[in-house]
Each structure stands twice: as structure tokens, then as C-alpha cells.
Amino acid sequence: MNQHPCFFYLFLLSMLLCKAGIAADTLFLPGDAYFPTWLTKDDLVRLKTTQTIKYSHPEGNDAIAPKTAGYTHAKLEGLNHSFLTNLIEAFNEYRSTGTYNIIEDLESGKMMFMQPGEGLHILFYSKTFNFRKYRLGLRYNENWIAETAKFNSDAEKIKLTELVDNGMAVMESWRDATRVPALPVKIPEITNRTQNPVDFPVLITGPLQAIILQDSLIDYYDLKEENYLSLVIVDATEVKEFSYEEYQWKVSSSDSEEGLRRLVEDI
């Protein structure tokens, strides 16, 4: 099948953008497929009353790159009691049993566990997003130029920023932008968007799913079976863990710490 020639030019442009580097980080833009956040136990308690989350880069560089466009917070209209109960259950279970990183002790050469941190990285998507078909962590925003321009009058300085800093990822994000559903949002009524970033929260509407990550977004983009990747998907009806096995995502048969320890012994 012949590929549309525009994909070739998009790919070249994406490579140039990545080679040139990213001068600034873009926060959430209307049209993005997901909203990333970092939640601790205290944050989950506050969610009961605020229903509001803060944008947080899964790779931990929130304080490094300056923010020139986008929204820092989102309010989750679909976060009902059942959803929040499932999210708290998944948080407690995954932090205690599923987010141990397997590392090698440099002195002994033995494999060991690194305890999880106090929180978890979570990506909020529309319920219709299919993580098996499309990559995690890509904006899939066909209107990113127009949306970014609303925050910056100098159009020549606009650069596409993806959380996965990879030329192929940028190309895929553009290519599949019309296929992947955007998060349905309502924009706050503000008169001046040149004051960046905007702290007034967008309202995310409609059914949602929360995808809890264990590893770097780059690992979820460049899937490799030897990375022992897993994730948990939470919505208002269920909590389900998946692991990447035999080059595909499968519902995990066991998410226990003992299972992880047996994995280390096998290594």
C-alpha cells in the first residue's frame, strides 16, 4: 500500500524538531489524548473533594524546562465514588506489590528490589482510548499548532513537544491524530492566555480511564519483552493489570510480590 507523501515530510520535520531540541515544555493542550499526573496517598484523599489533578511529567522534568503554553490543572467530572474507590484500591495494591523495580547491585552483581516511591505516575485518557493499538504518552493532537499559538504570539517559536522525545514518536503522533480520541474538555473562561502557564483547570468530561505506569514512558513506547513491563487500568467499573508478554499486552495472571521475586530468581 502506498503511503501518503505528507507522512514523509511530517517525518522529516519531526526529526528536525527533535534534532533542534526542545526549548520549552508544553503542558496540557485542548486536543491532547491524555492528561499526565503524579498522585500520592494525600493527593487521593484531596481528590474526594477537589476532583482536581496537576500536570506532571512522567519523566520527572517538571522543574527543568520552562512552560510556555498549556494548562497546569484539570478537574475530573467523571471521577465518581466508584472510580475513586477503584483508584485508591489500585494505588494501595500497586505500590505495595507491583511497582518494585528490579535492579542489579553493582558490587555483588545480584538482582535486588528497589522500593517504590510515595506516589505513582498516572495518565488519564478517554475511556475509548485503546492502549493496545496506540502508543502511550503521545499527544495525538492535530490542532497543536493552533492551540499553542493561543498562548504565544510569536508563531515562529512554536515547537511540538512530546513527552516521548523521539522522532518516530512525533511522526506517529501526527499520523494517528485523527484516529485517537482527544480528551473531551471544557476550557475555563479566562480573558488573557498570555500569562503562562494557565492555572485555571480545564474540565475533563465524559467516561475516563486511568492508566498507572510502572516504568519510563520511553519503555512503554519502545516495547521490549525483557523490560518486564506492566500497567494497571482503572475506571468506574474495574481494576485490571496487564503485563507485556510474548510481544503483546496480556491480562496479568498474578500481580503478587512473590511472583516478582520468582522472576528475579530466574534471572
- Mean pLDDT comes to 76
Give the amount of beta strand, in percent. 15-25%
Q: What gap, in angstroms, lies between the N and C termini?
A: 43 Å
Structural class based on helices, strands and sheet pairing = alpha+beta
The major sheet is characterized as: 6 strands, antiparallel
Shape: globular
Q: Helix-strand pattern, N to C? A: HEEHEEEHEEEHHEEEHEEEH
The beta-strand count equals: 14
Helix content: 25-40%
Stretches with pLDDT under 50, minimum 5 residues? 5-24, 98-106, 255-267
Radius of gyration: 19 Å
Helix count? 7
- Strand line-up in the sheet with most strands: 2-8-11-12-13-14
Return the domain count.
1
